[in-house]
Amino acid sequence: MHISDNSLKGLDENLLRSLTKRDLLDVSILLLADLKETRDRLNQNPANSSKPPSSKDPWFLGSPIDIKDEKEEEEPLEELPPDEKHSDDPKKGNPENKPAPKELKKKAGKQLGAKGYGRTQQLPITETILHRVNQCENCGLELNEDTTFNPLTGHYTIDIEVGDINDSYLKVTNTKHIYGDTICPCGHKNHTIPYRCEKEAEWDVEITQWNLIGPQLISLLCCLAFRMRLSRSRIQEFLLDWLGLRLSVGVINKSIHESGRAVSPVEDQLIEEVRKSNLLKVDETSWKERGRLQWLWVFCTSTVILYTIGFRSQDVIIGILSNTYAGLLMSDGYQAYRMFSRRLRCWAHLLRKARGLEESLNEEARVFGTKTLEALNTLKQAIYKAREGPEENLLPKFEKLLDDFLACCEKFRDSEHEKTRQLAREFLNDWDAIFRVLANPHLPLTNNEAEQALRHWVIARRLSHGTRTRQGSWSFMLLASVIDTCRKRKVSPWKYIAEVVSERRQGRSAPPLPLAA
User: Fold this and answer.
1) Whether 413 contacts 424, CB under 8 Å
2) Rounded distance, CA 25 to CA 178, Å?
């Protein structure tokens, strides 16, 4: 830059009008050079510079209307009628004049009709389980191990055993399950087959005992994917290097999605607890689902962390909280939250914006930013001091300061400087929500808890670039909710996930989330 920040601060309209024609031309040349350099920096993007793809603004990452439905993308090209395939008439589809068809984009993963491959790794069998019937379905006779059993089918389940603190180990097991007919003396054949959960329209993956991966191993896969943020291929590498276990990327992905479907009934419990909370902290960040722009929302209470993925609209908030939420809602300045009367505003956002104005080159912005910081910092110190003693209402004590600051916001609400105008109007629109904390200083001042909850998943988003299917998004938000809620309650999420998968595979309900330890 040719003009320093200090010189630019002193440059205003009156000074420019006082310059001679030659001096004004010299200053204009310097300003023009700085303006071009600034525009070049602003126009830098991942396509024309070394900036990473994650630096794109979220609204440029993709749009739902730009992405066709999967069925539309895979629609086969239209065949020409037989009499037009080799016609020389351009009107009848001459191949030389016909534009080349666009190449269809393939879906990720195994293609429909592609040849499959079976397992090549042979693991030693650690246990064999015969699934007999204990009581005849026809006559009610108790059946024992001496009863004739005809094996008809079976499968293997690979799982892990985890030792305790006194005997630490991680052991791979391979259990052989055999199903068949238990023949009662009355002649009735009592047939056993692996349990399969009923299909659900929104899930392509089954919950079934007929599965290669056991509950404990599924829980480990979830830990590696969600807590350690490993990709499916990195999980595959870890299992081979540390456990000597070969699993395909497809099996790993399917197992994680199955665990997502297994814990899906727990979402209702989480939503109910969120709606009953006295204080709720909400935040959102951009998320990509197969290139489409979505938003990852978080709802934090003292005992629950709930995630959901959807559009950035009131519909998502109403779907979680309904219109009857009666607790205090802590949020940023997004307009959709204004439908709730009992709101708290995060002061951290306001302080950052005010600090940005104070450091601005625009004089109006610096004046308003300085006054805003002075007012907020004075009130913040009073709030911290009030928290050390009995609860008191600080509003009467700072009535004069608030009246002066309100007049300042009114003065700058129509400022020519955009950021100054926006912040002044933000204070005016959310005045009660911002300063509600003065009536009860023990209420939180920031939304840091919700932002910190999202931070882990923002890093995961940068690594994975989001999810590729709607089912992947459902699995992600359900498992993330269960994992973070369990950790907030200081209980192991991995034991709970394994328990849920085990129960659901046997046709039983998912156990409720454990209470805080």
Assistant:
1) yes
2) 91
* Rounded Cα distance, 482 and 271, in Å: 12
Q: Which two tokens stand for residue 290?
A: 């197969």
- Delimit the domains of the chain by residue range: 125-194, 347-438
37-41, 131-135, 452-456, 488-492: segment of lowest average pLDDT:
37-41
Task: Write the CB contacts of 463 (distance below 8 Å, at least 6 apart in sequence).
Answer: 229, 231
- CA Rg, the chain, in Å? 32
Contact 453, 300 (CB under 8 A): yes
Buried b (16+ CB within 10 A) or exposed e, 177-202: bbbbbbbbeeebebebebeebeeeee
Rounded CA gap, 65 and 309, in Å?
17
Specify the 3-state DSSP secondary structure of 271.
helix
With a cut of 50, say whether residue 76 has pLDDT above it.
Answer: no
Q: What is the pLDDT of residue 79?
A: 42
Give 394-430 pLDDT, tens digit per residue: 999 999 999 999 999 999 999 989 899 999 999 999 9
Round to whole Å and give the CA distance between 464 and 159: 27
Q: How far is CA 381 from CA 145, 323, 367, 394, 441, in A?
A: 76, 35, 22, 12, 11
SS (H, E, C) 220-234: HHHHHHHHCCCCHHH
Q: How does DSSP classify residue 3?
A: S
Q: Considering only CA atoms, which of 235, 237, 255 is closest in space to residue 498?
A: 255
The C-alpha atoms of residue 171 and residue 168 are separated, in whole angstroms, by: 10
Nearest to 428 by CA among 372, 361, 365: 372
